[in-house]
């Protein structure tokens, strides 16, 4: 059995242009060293270069999402749009996060979802309940029980957090007034409790709490039950 994804470590390397390259300085609007009279820009230039280097070397943050089938995804997206229209909250793609906000290298994440997908076929999972909280990204969500397939995916891809796993698909992000949110939750509970959702693929997504929702993007996808080749 392959080692769980948590065992992989390290940060992605980033090859930076030479600080002596004129295009590099021009690209970021930085004057070349010694460009000022008597070299008075040296200190500021070095500080600017350091900031550029730190930006270029910042790790890329990704998440691993378990995705509903196309049909169920369209249905859940319609619910997100409904709630967004009611409350003025952001639109986003419904998903079940298996591993969030990681700086593991992309190659490790892609290999991890390929191995996990090969071991777990597509499956149906019933909505256990509609719940709400004060957390921004878990303000209003469909919760699922920890079934065998979900437990296996979590163990393979994020075993360090397996004990705190609460599988859910968020339907609304952000704070809204408690009374109308509770009313909407009761409405959705009647509509969704017990409804089966098919999950059929894993994705590596550029997403995280510090990345704007509009910039989230799927980077790699593997269908469950497939070997990724």
What does this structure look like?
The chain is of the alpha+beta class and 229 residues long. Helices cover 35% and strands 23% of the residues. The relative contact order is 0.19.
Helix/strand layout:
Blueprint: H1 22-27, H2 42-57, E1 62-68, H3 70-87, E2 96-102, H4 106-119, E3 123-132, E4 140-144, H5 148-158, E5 168-172, H6 178-192, E6 196-206, E7 217-223
Antiparallel strand pairs: 1-2, 1-6, 3-4, 3-6, 4-5, 6-7
Question: Which terms summarize this structure?
Answer:
single chain, 229 residues, alpha+beta, seven-stranded antiparallel sheet, 6 helices, 7 strands, 23% strand
How many helices does DSSP assign?
Answer: 6
N-to-C terminal Cα separation, in Å?
18 Å
Structural class of the secondary elements? Answer: alpha+beta
What letter string, H or E per element, gives the SSE order? Answer: HHEHEHEEHEHEE
The low-confidence parts are 7-57
Kindly report the average pLDDT value: 82
Strand content: 15-25%
What radius of gyration results from the CA coordinates? Answer: 22 Å
- Report the helical percentage: 25-40%
Total strands:
7
Quick structural overview:
This protein is an alpha+beta fold. It contains six helices and seven strands. Strand 3 and strand 4 (140-144) form a beta hairpin.
């Amino acid at each position: 059995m392959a080692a769980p994804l948590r065992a992989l470590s390290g940060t992605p390397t980033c090859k930076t242009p030479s600080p002596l390259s004129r295009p590099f300085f021009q690209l970021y609007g930085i004057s070349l060293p010694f460009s000022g009279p008597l070299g008075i820009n040296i200190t500021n230039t070095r500080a600017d270069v350091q900031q550029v280097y730190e930006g270029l070397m910042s790790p890329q943050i990704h998440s691993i999402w378990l995705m509903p089938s196309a049909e169920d995804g369209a249905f859940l997206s319609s619910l997100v749009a409904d709630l967004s229209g009611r409350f003025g909250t952001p639109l986003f793609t419904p998903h079940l996060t298996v591993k969030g906000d990681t700086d593991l290298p992309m190659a490790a994440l892609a290999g991890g979802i390929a191995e996990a997908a090969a071991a777990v076929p597509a499956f149906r999972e019933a909505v256990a309940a509609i719940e709400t909280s004060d957390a921004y990204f878990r303000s209003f969500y469909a919760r699922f029980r920890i079934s065998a397939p979900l437990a296996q995916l979590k163990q393979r891809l994020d075993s360090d957090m397996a004990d705190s796993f609460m599988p859910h698909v968020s339907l609304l992000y952000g704070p809204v007034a408690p009374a109308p949110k509770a009313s909407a939750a009761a409405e959705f509970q009647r509509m969704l409790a017990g409804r089966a959702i098919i999950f059929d693929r894993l994705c590596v997504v550029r997403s995280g709490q510090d990345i704007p929702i509009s910039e989230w993007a799927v980077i790699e996808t593997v269908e469950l039950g497939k070997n990724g080749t």
